[in-house]
Amino acid sequence: MKYKRILLKLSGESLMGDQEYGINGDRLKEYATEIKSVVELGVEVAIVIGGGNIFRGLKGASEGMDRTQADHMGMLATVINGLALQSALEAEGVKTRLQSAIEMNKVAEPYIRRRATRHLEKGRVVIFGAGTGNPYFTTDTAATLRAIEVDADVILKGTRVDGIYTADPEKDHSAVKYESISFKEVYEKGLNVMDMTAFTLSKENDLPIIVFDMNKEGNLLNLLKGEKVGTLVAN
Description:
Layout: E1 5-10, H1 25-39, E2 44-49, H2 57-62, H3 67-91, E3 96-100, E4 109-110, H4 113-121, E5 125-129, H5 139-149, E6 154-159, E7 164-165, E8 177-178, E9 180-182, H6 183-189, H7 196-204, E10 209-213, H8 219-224, E11 231-234
Parallel strand pairs: 1-2, 1-6, 2-5, 3-4, 3-5, 6-10, 9-11
Antiparallel strand pairs: 7-8, 10-11
């Protein structure tokens, strides 16, 4: 396999499937099956998932809510999604641990780096919930931070688009896909890959990012086998 240890970043919205809100059971099962296929081949998988399908802190703040309070609500949404994904994975026979940056001992382990690393070494999927535990940071930043902390080889950002394009391919049909691109080029071209804090953290720590379509069956496995899937961002 091309990468031994990965950090898979999923958006909360991806769990909605064709719904307008919440969690789609069929989509959860699809993701669990995809993740299981790479775990069985010895890949160590850590996951960070957003909470936008339930509550987004920035939206709450834009509607007059205190930003810190709104962000904490968003963090709790990511734990709900983490519990759902954990349940789906375990239904597929995948051993899983959910760790939360905000202590809630009844439903998740507290985030402890060494414990997380040990779980990965034992072949357990580790889901990191509650972001970084701090307001004003996105789950993109949490994903990058956790990837660096557990020495992941790459961040795999699963989206509904099959890579990075010169423009939004859903709006501009003439947009051209990049097979690979440098961090510097992404800066210069103003392309939207991750929020700037997360992106800078990846660049400074020489941690590559691959943006790919998580909703296409077999994509995750094919990517890890070394096939041309998505767009690679690297120094």
